[in-house]
Amino acid sequence: MSKVIVLDHPLIQHKLTLIRNKETGSKDFRDLVTEVAMLMGYEVTRDMELEDITIETPMGTMESKVLSGKKVGLVPILRAGLGMVDGMLRLIPVARVGHIGLYRDPETLLPVEYYCKLPQDVKDRTLYVLDPMLATGGSAAAAIDFLKDRGAVSIKLVCLIGSPEGVKVVQERHPDVDIYLASLDEKLNDHAYIIPGLGDAGDRLFGTK
Fold first, then answer.
1. Is the bond into 79 cis (omega within 30 degrees of 0)?
2. How far is CA 76 from CA 51, 133, 161, 200, in A?
3. Tell me: the pLDDT tens digits for 66-81?
4. % residues pLDDT > 70 (the chain)
5. How do residues 116-125 score in pLDDT, each as one tens digit?
6. Measured between alpha carbons, how far is 84 from 61 in angstroms, rounded to an integer?
7. Which pLDDT belongs to residue 68?
8. What 3-state class would DSSP assign to 56?
9. Angle, alpha carbons 85-87-91 (nearest 5°)
10. pLDDT digit string (tens) for 78-105?
11. Upstream peptide bond of 196 is cis (omega within 30 degrees of 0)
């Protein structure tokens, strides 16, 4: 079964409180999501492989470490996942960025794909699927399905807030994909919104509500 890692760093928790606050406007909301995504990035990339190289400092020669191993890809789930991309890119500026477009059918609550554009070499990359909210888990699980169908083998899911229901769905469908959260909230309500959550992340990011 995949791991669920809740990142409880004080800065993440402080900024998440500001994100949740209904009085936080779109600009501050966007900035805070970017900042939290960057802070989370330190933890979700903790297992990146290193190799030794020889360099010259102003004082002499030394052996030092640089990243090696698999290349990185960021895959935001449109549209709310876009809010997390810049924060991750600040840490990993060479990462390739793919996009998966999904929306939740308001009647069935099931995810519907409308767009998918990925780097050609997804099988050679560690992919970080980005979405602020892990609610029902349907969209995240479907996005991971699409990535695996295209050859991806190393995938992590990174969300600000998750529900127990969503975590369960992803773990059952993709037991090889670890889940990183800033908070695991209480439950879903009858409309499949996370409680206490933060409302609709896409609307709050882009000022559409």
1. yes
2. 29, 12, 15, 16
3. 988 779 999 999 989 9
4. 100
5. 999 989 999 9
6. 39
7. 84
8. strand
9. 110
10. 989 999 999 999 999 999 999 999 877 7
11. yes
**Taking the model in full, what pTM does it have?**
0.91
Assess whether pLDDT exceeds 80 at residue 173.
yes
pLDDT in tens, 28-37: 999 999 999 9
Residue 185 · residue 196 · CB < 8 Å: yes
What one-letter code names the amino acid at 104? R
* Residue 38: burial class (beta carbons within 10 Å; 0-12, 13-18, 19+): middle
Reduced to 3 states (helix: H, G, I; strand: E, B; else coil), residue 109 is: coil
- The Cα–Cα gap between 71 and 176 comes to 19
pLDDT at 89: 96
Read off φ and ψ for residue 110, nearest 5 degrees.
Answer: -90, 150
Task: Characterize 159-171 residue by residue with b for buried, 16 or more Cβ atoms within 10 angstroms of its Cβ, and e for exposed.
Answer: bbbbbbebbebbb
Distance CA 12, CA 173 (A): 28
CA angle 209, 23, 25 (to 5 degrees): 55
| Longest CA pairwise span in the chain (Å) | 66
Are 98 and 75 spatial neighbours (Cβ–Cβ below 8 Å)? Answer: yes
Contact 44, 167 (CB under 8 A): no
Question: Which pair of structure tokens corresponds to residue 131?
Answer: 């979405």
Q: Which two tokens stand for residue 192?
A: 């499949």
Q: Cα 47 to the chain's mean position, in Å? A: 16
